[in-house]
Design goal:
By secondary structure, this protein is an alpha/beta fold. It has one domain: Glycosidases (TIM Barrel, Alpha-Beta Barrel), CATH 3.20.20. Helices cover 42% and strands 13% of the residues. The chain has 18 helices and 13 strands. The strands form three sheets. The protein has an eight-stranded parallel barrel, surrounded by five helices. Helix 4 packs parallel to helix 6. Bound molecules: ligand GBH. Ligand GBH binds next to loops.
């Protein structure tokens, strides 16, 4: 009996449906990798670079980092940038996403003083990529705020929006003749909630009740100012595009009850809707249900007004539509419940405001990071939801990756990436206008609060070695093969441990 069923299923999958094995990525689909300035560059005070909030925090309170380490040297890409580009060529990348260090370019945070050495470093990096037809994709801000701006309140100061626009203009001016893909911010949630509403990122402001929301409003307005600066003054002559990258993990309901579906929607609004909704939804402003919930709770808690600021009508229409694309950082999924796994914290915060429970099944394989599991259909669920919500806009996956405690034969990373890329193909098949995929990360780097204890690289970096030697893991060979063939071959087993550069790369 059993064999009959197996047989008939086999017939169905062989003849009625196209075989998944044969699916190909479109020729113009962009494969890349991603990194961020503070995590790889080092050279923390080289050639007049100014101090940023991560320099300040790791130097003054090293105990907040798991291994008391810092990014003073990191992977030393400040010195090793040619080797980085060589690795991109070995992998056969189409594109490379990296970020600019604001205080390397503007040492005191403001644009009255521009560092020639800082500009020269990025020119060298960009020109080296272009020599080999690797498309640079720049993130203007990946978490390393100039310390002086932080002392003025950073993202909670409404003048931040001007400081950021000024900085963005310098970047467009200096690099925009060659760089055509601009991302304003990496992961607003991590900037606002982790940096201002809690203690899990610099500057650890921990103003749990209001700071996340103040930051969120200033951040999306700053994004829009930088976007319109590009559109009005650079786009015609430079011909590029500008968007933002938001961390959109998938939050689905734990059960199919109405309560759990509503809880999952509130969670999505709290996690990424705060930033996506003002920019991408027709309606504009913060997400409706969640902002009503925060207003109601604020009132009950005795605050004179909602802890979440409002957008004026003028601000709403200014921010709304300020994008050429949506950058998605996607890592994993969570199952959300209205009644189970609730947090017991009652102090006002983003989490108690949402007031829902979150669960991850133990059978989803776990990485070296407590928050990162391989979840089924994760990218597909997130992207098809975004398409349904915001329409047929252009997407890039700007990060996706997997951590291990060390490098070498990283079969779990390979398994994770193959699953992720199958989900990318499922999304494309479902009509999502997805143009590219950047794997996090090209190489091991400073993993924020986790220091060097979690490794995300396709290449291992020897942080004991002054030369910061980079060695390809198994996953590097597998990704290379996928990029080259545009097919995911689940049986491919690399037969070499030495990387070469293919012809034409
Ligand atoms: C990205 O963040 C970052 O853009 C990148 O810089 C980083 O290196 C990469 O992912 C890998 O982490 O420990 O439970 O407090 C991904 C989103 C949000 C994931 C914060 C880790 C900490 C959860 N990150 N989260 S917890």
């Amino acid at each position: 009996m059993k064999s009959v069923i197996v047989f008939s299923l086999a017939v169905v999958s062989c003849c009625a449906l196209p075989s998944k094995q044969d699916r190909k990525f479109p020729d113009d689909f962009i494969f890349g990798t991603a990194t961020a300035s503070y995590q790889i560059e080092g050279g923390w005070n080289a050639d007049g670079k100014g101090e940023n909030i991560w320099d300040y925090m790791t130097h003054n309170t090293p105990e907040v980092i798991k291994d008391q380490s810092n990014g003073d040297i990191a992977a030393d890409s400040y010195t090793n940038y040619k080797r980085d580009v060589e690795m991109m060529r070995e992998l056969g990348l189409d594109a490379y996403r990296f970020s600019l260090s604001w205080s390397r370019i503007l040492p005191n945070g403001f644009s009255n003083q521009i560092s020639e050495a800082g500009i020269a470093f990025y020119n060298n990096y960009i020109n080296e990529m272009l020599k080999y037809n690797i498309t640079p994709m720049i993130t203007l801000y990946h978490w390393d705020l100039p310390q002086r701006l932080s002392e003025l309140g950073g993202f909670t100061n409404p003048l931040f929006t001007d400081w950021f626009e000024d900085y963005a203009r310098v970047a467009y001016e200096e690099f925009g003749d060659r760089v055509k893909h601009w991302i304003t911010f990496n992961e607003p949630r991590e900037i606002c909630y982790e940096g201002y509403g809690s203690t899990t990122k610099a500057p650890r402001a921990n103003v749990t009740d209001i700071a996340t929301y103040i930051c969120a409003k200033n951040l999306v307005i700053a994004h829009a100012k930088a976007y319109y600066a590009y559109v009005n003054d650079f786009k015609d002559s430079q011909g590029g595009e500008c968007g933002i990258t938001i961390s959109v993990n998938w939050f689905g309901p734990l059960t199919d009850s109405e309560e759990d579906e509503a809880a999952a929607e509130i969670k999505r609004q709290a996690e990424w809707g705060l930033y996506a909704e003002p920019i991408y939804s027709q309606q504009g402003g913060f997400p409706k249900e969640f902002s009503e919930l925060v207003a109601k709770k604020s009132d009950e808690q005795g605050y004179p007004r909602s802890r979440m600021p409002e957008f004026t009508e003028e601000e709403k229409s200014y921010v709304n539509g300020a994008y050429d694309f949506f950058g998605v950082n996607h890592y994993t999924s969570y199952l959300i419940s209205a009644t189970e796994y609730l947090d017991d914290s009652t102090a006002p915060s983003l989490y108690s405001d949402a007031g829902v429970g979150s669960y991850t099944p133990p059978e989803w394989p776990l990485s070296a990071s407590s928050w990162l599991r391989l979840a089924p259909n994760s990218i597909y669920n997130a992207l098809t939801h975004l398409k349904e919500k915001y329409g047929d806009i252009k997407f890039y996956i700007t990060e996706n990756g997997w951590s291990e405690t060390s490098g070498g034969d990283d079969y779990n990373r390979i398994k994770y990436q193959r699953a992720a890329l199958e989900s990318v193909l499922d999304s494309i098949d479902a009509g999502v206008n997805l143009r590219g995929y950047m794997f996090w990360s090209l190489m091991d780097n400073f993993e924020w609060m986790e220091g060097y204890t979690e490794r995300f690289g396709l290449y291992s970096v020897d942080f004991e070695d002054p030369a910061r030697t980079r060695t390809p893991n198994k996953s590097a060979f597998v990704y290379k093969q996928i990029i080259k063939t545009r097919v995911i071959d689940h049986d491919y087993e690399p037969d070499s441990t030495t990387m070469t550069i293919d012809q034409g790369r």
